[in-house]
Amino acid sequence: MTSDAKTGAERLREFLKDRGIPLREAAKGIRVSHPAIVQWLDGTAKPSAPHREALDRWTNGAVPAESWLEPHEATRLDEITPWKSTPDSEAAVAPAPPFQADVGTKAGGADAA
């Protein structure tokens, strides 16, 4: 998220306004209380991770879950690169021992005597 990017609250407010969606309808669609939506929009609270995902889905991506991150949180995420397998990284991991079936006998069985 760059510094000129809109916040989640700004995106949600714009989404609702542009479509004329009442807050109560939005709350019902996202399965939260009306006060929760109001708090998200006025900045006194932020949606939980599952609610961020619900907003992302309900708005068809117009309010991405990532838009609710603080700038320092977004910066940290931007610094993370996907893990890539390399010959060196594969060699550093010890191979798992092969599966060995229990070939012994059960306690009390014919061979246990």
Question: Any overview of this molecule?
Answer:
The protein is an all-alpha fold and 113 residues long. It has a domain at 8-78: Orthogonal Bundle (434 Repressor (Amino-terminal Domain)). 47% of the residues lie in helices and 0% in strands. The chain is built from six helices and no strands. The longest helix is centred in the first third of the chain and has 12 residues, at 8-19. The N and C termini lie far apart (70 Å).
Radius of gyration: 26 Å
How many E strands?
0
The DSSP helix count reads: 6
Low-pLDDT runs? none
The CATH class of the domain at 8-78 is Mainly Alpha
Residue-averaged pLDDT, rounded? 84
Please report which band the strand proportion falls in: under 5%, 5-15%, 15-25%, 25-35%, 35-45% or over 45%. under 5%
Helix proportion of residues, in percent?
40-55%
CATH architecture of the domain at 8-78: Orthogonal Bundle
Q: How would you sum up the major sheet? A: none
What does the overall shape look like?
Answer: elongated
Category from helices, strands and their pairing: mainly alpha
CATH domain topology of the domain at 8-78? 434 Repressor (Amino-terminal Domain)
Roughly how many Å apart are the termini? 70 Å
Order of helices and strands: HHHHHH
Offer a few descriptive terms.
mainly alpha; single chain; 6 helices; elongated; 113 residues
Put the structure in a nutshell:
By secondary structure, the chain is an all-alpha fold.
